[in-house]
């Protein structure tokens, strides 16, 4: 059983009680010898190990960084998002812990079963709304009065976070999130049974002068197929995994079949717009290069070879003289 850690205030209070005689040190020793019983609540069954909780925390720390960048660009203001806690609790307890009226985004995460929930506190949601509509980012808690336009703006904003969610989870599993529902009343939402264990990741969120929480609720049924991938052992294997023997050959073959644009530059010249407008048939434009100079052969607009012009079977062609090493034909 894990030992309880006392705070400094508790330690001071304990020492004070012993010194004043309110508590006897011998009685404390007797209590330590007695067997301690810890109450276990079967309604709060712990279905995830600490190792798996740490992996989920690591995934959503990355998600929080991605969201910070995304919302900063969308709202054009100071945004700071960080993971506050990761807990496993019954679904019913999570529903009771959030406001009666809030912003609820329900995502399907194919190919995983079930759905996940992203809940944004009204303080945060209306700060976002105010910024999107050109305001300073002030929060007004009137979530029960959402208009159709406000609902559309907020749902589209959170729908755009799908790419960030997909990238954050890409180290474990490739998912294709889609926004299925947008709700404001959690009591109208029944994702899983009330006693189902869910993981709740709480994100501290600051947007301008407003602050609040964004909670991500992931039911056990969603994570069950990938629980083995949430272990440290799997992460270590993934990071140290080497390429398969055939991958390099396949990559080389794909590169060799790629098409590139090539062009030989006969020469260049500079004329004024007036001179260009007066050009007519049989006029001669003097180029800066000599007829004896090699031509520059460009691959995707970058000079790669020096060549000389000619013909092959009555078709214009160039012969490569040498590889370009920089100099007169440098584009920079």
TrEMBL record:
Annotated localization: Bacterial flagellum basal body; Cell membrane
Highest taxon, organism lineage: Bacteria
Gene3D superfamilies per record: CheC-like, SpoA-like
Membrane topology: Peripheral membrane protein
Domain Flagellar motor switch protein FliN-like C-terminal: 254-322
Pfam name, any one: FliM
Keyword set, alphabetical order: Bacterial flagellum, Cell membrane, Cell projection, Chemotaxis, Cilium, Flagellar rotation, Flagellum, Membrane
Predominant place of localization: other
Family, per entry: Belongs to the FliM family.
Record protein name field: Flagellar motor switch protein FliM
Organism: Pontibacillus salicampi
Gene behind the chain: fliM
């Amino acid at each position: 059983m894990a030992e309880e850690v006392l705070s400094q205030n508790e330690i001071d209070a304990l020492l004070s009680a012993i010194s004043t005689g309110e508590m006897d040190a011998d009685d404390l020793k007797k209590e330590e010898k007695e067997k301690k019983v810890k109450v276990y609540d079967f309604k709060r069954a712990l279905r995830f190990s600490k190792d798996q909780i740490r992996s989920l925390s690591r995934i959503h720390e990355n998600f929080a960084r991605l969201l910070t960048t995304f919302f900063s660009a969308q709202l054009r203001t100071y945004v700071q998002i960080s993971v506050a806690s990761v807990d496993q609790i019954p679904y019913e307890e999570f529903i009771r812990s959030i406001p009666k009226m809030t912003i609820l985004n329900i995502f399907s995460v194919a190919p995983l079963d079930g759905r996940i929930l992203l809940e944004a506190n009204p303080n945060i949601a209306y700060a976002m709304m105010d910024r999107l509509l050109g305001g300073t980012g002030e929060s007004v808690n009137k979530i029960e009065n959402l208009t159709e336009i406000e609902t559309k703006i907020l749902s589209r904003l959170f729908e755009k976070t799908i790419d960030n969610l997909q990238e954050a989870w890409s180290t474990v599993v490739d998912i294709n999130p889609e926004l299925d529902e947008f709700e404001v009343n959690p009591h109208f939402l029944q994702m899983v049974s009330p006693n189902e264990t869910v993981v709740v990741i709480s994100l501290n969120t600051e947007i301008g002068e407003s602050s609040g929480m964004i909670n991500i609720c992931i039911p056990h049924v969603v994570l069950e197929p990938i629980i083995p991938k949430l272990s440290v052992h799997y992460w270590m294997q993934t990071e140290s995994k080497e390429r398969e023997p055939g991958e390099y050959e396949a990559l080389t073959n794909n590169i060799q079949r790629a098409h590139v644009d090539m062009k030989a530059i006969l020469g260049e010249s500079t004329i004024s717009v007036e001179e260009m407008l007066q050009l007519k048939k049989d006029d001669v434009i003097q180029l800066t290069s000599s007829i004896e100079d090699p031509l520059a052969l460009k691959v995707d607009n970058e000079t790669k070879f020096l060549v000389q012009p000619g013909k092959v079977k009555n078709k214009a062609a160039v012969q490569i003289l040498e590889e370009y090493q920089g100099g007169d034909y440098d584009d920079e």
